[in-house]
Amino acid sequence: DIYAVGITFYRINELRAIASSSSSLFTSGGLFNSFRSQQLQQSLINQLCSVPPPDVTVIAPYSQIVGESLTIACRIDAVKDIDSTVDIIWTTGNTEVRRVENIPACLISNYSDFFTIPVLSRSDNNREYQCDVIINTTPPVEGNNTVQLNVKQPPQMVISPSQSPHRVTVGMQLLLHCAAEGLPIPTVQWHIKDDPVTPLEQIYQQLYLVPTDSPNTTVYTCVGRNFVSGTERIAQVNVTVIVERQCPVLRAPFRGQITISDDRKLAFFSCSRGNSLRGPNVLKCENGQWNRPRPSCQLIPRLCRRRCNF
Predict the structure, then answer these.
(1) Cis peptide bond prior to 140, omega within 30° of 0
(2) What one-character DSSP code corresponds to residue 279?
(3) What b-and-e string marks burial along 55-88, b requiring 16 or more CB atoms within 10 Å of the CB?
(4) pTM of the predicted protein model
(5) What are the residues facing 256 on neighbouring strands?
(6) What whole-number distance in Å separates Cα of residue 297 and Cα of residue 69?
(7) For residue range 14-58, what is the model confidence (pLDDT) as tens digits?
(8) Beta partners for 238?
(9) Residue from 260, 168, 261 nearest 211 by CA
(10) Residue 305: enclosing H or E segment and its boundaries?
C-alpha cells in the first residue's frame, strides 16, 4: 500500500520547521503524496511534531530527622524542544511552596532544582512533595513526580511525677510513669541500676514500687530505644527513690488533740479549752524518729483563767 516515489532524509528539527511553515506539506502533492493510509500519515505527523513530556525524578535524602533541615532534589531530563522555556513548581497538598519560571530549555538537560525545609517537625512525617515541570509549548507539556517523607525522631523521655528524689516510707506504694515520644515509637524499659525491671513490676511504661526493705536510696532508670537512620538511639531519665522508715505512732496528749499530715511527716498538737500546751506544737519525722519529745497539756489555774478569759 506504500509507493515510494523518492526518499529524502530530514533531521527532526528540519521536519518540524517545515511542518510549521508549510500548510501544503500534508496535502496531495506534498511530502506524503506517496501514502494512501491517512492513519499512517497522522501517526507520523504526531511523532515528528509533538513534544514528549520530560523525565522528572524527585529525590529525598534517607536521613530525615526532626529538628534538622532537609533538601529535596527534582531532577529533570529528556527535554526535547530546546527552543522553549520551562517552569518548575513545587507543591505539598494544595499549597505551592516554590516556583521557578522561564528557564531556557537548552539548560535543562540533566538539570536539578532544589527545595529546602529549614526545620523538620513530626507533622512532616508522611507528607508528600510534588515537583511539576511544564514545557511552555503550544499546548504546554507537563511531567511530574512526588516523594513522601519518612521523618524520624530520637526518643524523648518524660517521667511523672516529675520530682526527684521521691521519698517514700516502707510499705508505701509509688507509681512512676515513663512517657516516650519518638518516630518510630520507642520501646520503654525500666532498669534498677543496670538490671532490667521484671515484667510484673513494669506494665505499659508504668513502674509499681512497694518498698519493703530497710531505708535505702535506689536509682531507677527509664530507657527508650528506637532506630533513627538505621542506628539505635537511646535516651534515659534517672529517678531516685529514697525509702525511709515511718516514725512511731503518736498519741494525743491528755486533754489535747493531734493531727498527722497525709505524708506522715508532721504532727500538729493543740489543747482543750482551759489547758495550755507545754512543748512544741509541731513535730517533724526525720529518719524514722520524731525530732522532739511529745508535748503535754497542763491545766490552767482558775485565777489565771478568770484573768486570761480561758
Answers:
(1) no
(2) S
(3) ebebebeeebbbeeebebebbbeebbbeebbbbb
(4) 0.57
(5) 271
(6) 73
(7) 555 555 554 444 444 444 444 445 555 555 555 555 667 888 999
(8) 221
(9) 168
(10) helix 302-308
